[in-house]
Amino acid sequence: YFCVFLGRHSTPLHFAAGYNRVCVVEFLLAHGADVHAKDKGGLVPLHNACSYGHYEVTELLVKHGASVNVADLWKFTPLHEAAAKGKAEIVRLLLKVMIDRNASKKNRDGATPLDLVREGDQDVADLLRGNAALLDAAKKGNLARVQRLVNTDNINCRDVQGRNSTPLHLAAGYNNLEVAEFLLDHGADVNAQDKGGLIPLHNASSYGHLDIAALLIKFNTVVNATDKWGFTPLHEAAQKGRTQLCALLVS
User: Which UniProt keywords apply (predicted)?
Assistant: First the structure.
C-alpha cells in the first residue's frame, strides 16, 4: 500500500482521504498504509481530508497518528487548508487535538490560518480567534455568537491583552443584559476580579447599568467588594452620580 501514481505522486491513502472513501481509508490504515506519506507537493493524506471537509476521515487519520502540524512545501498545515476552505467542523477538530492550540503558524507567504479565512466565514474565524472571539461577542452583545462559542472551559476566560476582564465584565460594562444573564445561567463567576480588582458589579455601577446591577445582585455578587484602591461598587456609582444605582446598592 505504498505504491504511487503518476501525477501528484499520491498514494492510495491520499486518494481515499481526498474522495472521502471512509471504508477504504480504514482498510488501508489497518493494513499498514503510511499516514505520513507526502505527495510531490509535500501534502499528506490529512491535508486532503481537511481541505475537502471530510470529518470522519480526518478523525481516522488523526487517530492513527497523523500529525496535525505537518506542513507542505508551501508551509500549509491541515489547519491552513481547513480554514481557507471554510471547513468549520474540521477546524474545531484540529484545534481540539492540537496540544499547543497554536493556530498562528505562518505559511510561506506569511499567512496564518486566520489570515486565509474568507469574508463571511464567521464561525471559522471565531474558532481560530479562540477566547478573543467570545470576549468580543460579549462586549458587542451578540447573544447568538456567545451561545455558539461559550463552554465550561472558556466562560471565565480573560482578556489578557487588556484589563484581564472576563466575558461577564464586558457584558456588564457594555450593558448587554441578555448576554450577562446567559453567562450567569451557565456558570460565569459573578465575583471574578480583573487586574484592578474590579468585579462585574463595579463595571455596571460605574456606567449606571441598573438592570445589569440588579441581575448581578440576584446572582449573589458581593455588593461591598473592593478593588485594589479600596473602591466598592457604591463608590463607583456615587462618584459618577448614578443615583438610582446608589439606591439599589444601599438597599
Answer: ANK repeat, Repeat
Cα diameter, the chain:
80
Query: From CA 249, how far away is CA 244, in angstroms rounded?
Result: 9
Provide the sign of the torsion angle of the four alpha carbons 155, 161, 165, 171, taken in this order. Answer: negative
Task: Give the domain CATH number at 81.
Answer: 1.25.40.20
Question: Domain span at residue 106?
Answer: 12-126
In whole angstroms, what separates CA 197 from the centre of its chain?
A: 26
- Same domain flag for 92 and 172: no
| pLDDT given for residue 8 in this prediction | 80
24 lies in a domain? yes
pLDDT tens digits along 27-48: 999 999 999 999 999 999 999 9
Per-residue confidence (pLDDT) for residue 231, from 0 to 100: 98
Tell me, yes or no, whether 164 lies in a domain.
yes
CA 246, CA 103: separation in Å to the nearest integer? 46
Q: Which three cell numbers stand for residue 84?
A: 481557507
